[in-house]
Design goal:
The chain has 331 residues and is an alpha/beta fold. The protein contains twelve helices and 13 strands. The strands form two sheets. Strands 5-1-8-9-10-11-12-13 form an eight-stranded mixed sheet, sandwiched between helices. The protein has a five-stranded mixed sheet with strand order 3-7-6-2-4.
Length: 331
């Protein structure tokens, strides 16, 4: 079967609500700086009412990645659950205007609203997220479009979905369909707290289903319960064929079989908001891999996308990533 899509992502379909704030606001509202905290509908309403001068953008980790991959020029699809409401329509419109295939059935006969992530950005560019999962958490295996997965070079799974039984079941379905078609499956670990909650299950899932792992340094160390970065990297290499690990200003590391490549971070004149940096890094890597580029070039594409997105508010590219990459001679 020839591929119709380069990448299909499965994740939480979330609309981001962003505001610039200070440390005092985080303390007042008991928000753990730099982390993602799950909240209920009541707290979502209260916190959003306290945030000032907000901006809205379609988000969700895998949604951000697929938007970045599409900006590079990849043929993309997305699986994620939204409700039949204004935020759901906003999310779907954003993906479709980027020519991303998005046909997941909308949640009907259920009052649960579309998910939203309340993101407070401090002056140092760190983002602190409070997420009401809403309809996004109701994704199920029946939402997987088997023919789309079979027609995709890589299926990319958002680790945040590991927090729900239906998410894990959906992952298993997607991975099994991809494997049956001889396709590759990738996962991002998403957050150190996710790793701490589901370490054993994640490791078992990676052993069974995953060809490619994305992680940042914090997530990697949490996964293998060590403070030694290269020791953890060796452990990860034993679990998967290929891994990309980001290290903030220190760049990233590519681990492939016995080879390790260290990639410098792309220059960024000013860090404004780190929201989506890891997501856009994955976008560049996934695009590069589906185009048959060397893994170091893939990492450089990821670094380029990450550097661009942290230079402005919001988790998605504001210019053509394909054009940026062409100007840098990477594609």
């Amino acid at each position: 079967m020839t591929t119709s899509y380069d990448i299909t992502a499965v994740g939480h379909a979330i609309v981001d609500v962003l505001a610039q704030t200070d440390e005092a606001f985080l303390t007042k509202h008991d928000l753990h700086k730099g982390a993602m905290t799950l909240i209920d509908a009541h707290r979502a309403l209260s916190l959003s009412g306290a945030m000032q001068d907000t901006e809205m953008a379609s988000g969700g980790s895998a949604g951000n990645t697929i938007s970045g991959a599409a900006s590079f020029g990849a043929k993309c699809a997305y699986v994620g659950k939204v409700a039949h409401d204004a935020l759901g329509e906003f999310f779907a419109h954003d993906l479709k205007k980027m020519n991303v295939h998005f046909q997941t059935p909308v949640l009907h006969d259920d009052p649960t609203p579309t998910a939203r992530c309340l993101i407070n950005v401090t002056p140092d560019g760190q983002r602190t997220m409070a997420t009401f999962l809403g309809a996004a958490a109701l994704i199920s295996p029946k939402d997987i479009e088997e023919e789309v997965i079979k027609a995709s070079q890589i299926t990319y799974l958002e680790g945040y979905l590991f927090d729900s039984p239906s998410g894990r079941e959906t992952f298993a379905k997607a991975a099994e369909v991809a494997r049956s078609a001889g396709r590759k499956t990738a996962i991002t670990l998403s957050d150190g707290f996710v790793v701490n909650r589901w370490r054993d299950d994640l490791l078992a899932f990676i052993d069974r289903h995953i060809d490619l792992v994305f992680a940042n340094e914090t997530e990697l160390l949490a996964m293998f319960e060590t403070d030694d970065f290269y020791k953890a990297l060796r452990y990860l290499r034993g679990k998967t064929d290929l891994a990309f690990v980001t290290r903030s200003a220190e760049g990233s590391v590519v681990a492939k079989m016995e080879d390790t490549h260290v990639i410098k971070a792309a220059p960024c004149p000013q860090v404004v908001d780190t929201t989506g940096a890891g997501d856009q890094y994955a976008a560049g890597v996934l695009f590069g891999l589906t185009q048959g580029l060397h893994v170091t070039t893939c990492a450089e594409l990821g670094s380029l996308a990450a550097a661009h997105v942290i230079g402005h508010i919001g988790p998605r590219a504001q210019v053509s990533l394909k054009q940026l990459a062409t100007e840098r001679g990477l594609i």
